[in-house]
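hey can u run this one w/ phosphoric acid mono(formamide)ester bound, need the structure tokens asap thx
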Amino acid sequence: MSSLSVNHLLGIKQLNKNDIELILNTAEYFKGVINRPIKKVPALRDLTIANLFFENSTRTRLSFELAQKRLSADVVNFSASNSSVKKGETLIDTVNNILAMKVDMVVMRHSSPGAAMFLSKKVNARIINAGDGAHEHPTQALLDAFSIREKLGALKGKKVVIVGDILHSRVAISNIFCLQKMGALVKVCGPQTLIPKYITSLGVEVETDLRKALEWCDVANMLRIQLERQDIKYFPSLREYSMLYGLDKHLLNSLSKEIVVMHPGPINRGVEITSDVADSKQSIILDQVENGVAVRMAVISLLAGRPVGE
Ligand code: CP
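ok here u go:
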């Protein structure tokens, strides 16, 4: 199989196992490309892509832009904070004006869940969801899956615990869909107040004791506490959170086996993980960032209908 079953990447929910395998295998090829002295291929030199960021981003925005440039696409970047959105222009008007300039593909981050889906129904361009509120962050889940597969050799049967602010996390939801489709086992761990009640209906077990969760897993994905999405207090203080759910070197070293530590970034050092854990040899946080470029190259080239080797 050399093409995806979807025209847009709106979420992992819409992908099947073959789609995910195709993306990960294509990303493996592109990882080879970006580690060559000449890190570029001419595949998309006839394509123009707009990156629309209505919410802050460091990794995702830079990673998409780099992926597009490595594929030789033309790139335009739009950030809502210094645009005519501030003068009242709607999302659809903004996007239609950008598309009038002959743009073929749109990568969008937005604070509203469903914004990418909405756009895909209204405009004539390929849409990639770069994070929509607390809904989905599909390319993050794909790069996480790629990084686990690269580190452990497979996803099937691997045990992954996602720790922290599950309630506000698009990374958690996309990871759950992606890992389960690939045959991994997923648990979530955190304070009850940050674990949505529906989570068990996704086939995910809940563990509120961090040590037990870590003893169970092969991989711990430590999520950021998303204070910007929290309208009420879900725990007494960050200090108390980090005492109960933060991962430090003492806890990591006391486990009966060596686990892999991940974090989607940005890290709040000393809250969800300490610096010595983030920078330890068990951490693959910077591998995740490197792999993000290869995975996004794969997603873009497949959605553009340019599978590698053809
Ligand atoms: N992981 C992630 O989405 O990071 P940014 O918010 O910096 O893009």
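The first helix runs from residue 17 to 34. anyway lmk if its weird
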